[in-house]
Amino acid sequence: MKELIVLATLIALGTGAAQAADRMVKLAVDKMYCDACPITVGKAMQGVKGVKSAKVDYKTKTAVVVFDDGATSAEAIAAASTNAGYPARLATN
Question: pTM of the entire structure?
Fold first, then answer.
């Protein structure tokens, strides 16, 4: 019985360390020429499983995205924008 309790405790502790976390990334988005473009970019990014929010700014040509890093990646989100006609990449600033 003692071994079972120890084993259950180790399993519970081990699974907590492997959990995914929310991550925020800033992407530079090209080819946005009007105020409507961020709507299309935002929809493309939010269509990626694991994306929790995408705030796209036309003036700065950037997107700030919060996502579950266990479900997707910054590269996949950038690819969704690129596939919608708005090339995206990690912002340098």
Answer: 0.79
Token pair in block for residue 50 = 């694991």
- 44-50 LR contacts (CB < 8 Å, sep 24+): 44/80, 44/81, 44/83, 44/84, 44/86, 45/77, 45/80, 45/81, 47/80, 48/72, 48/76, 48/77, 48/80
Total domain count for the chain? Answer: 1
Q: pLDDT higher for 88 or 15?
A: 88
Q: Residue 57: which domain range?
A: 20-90
Q: How does pLDDT run across 29-79, given as a tens digit for each residue? A: 999 999 999 999 999 999 999 999 999 999 999 999 999 999 999 999 999
What CATH number should be reported for the domain holding residue 85? 3.30.70.100
The answer to whether residue 8 sits within a structural domain is no
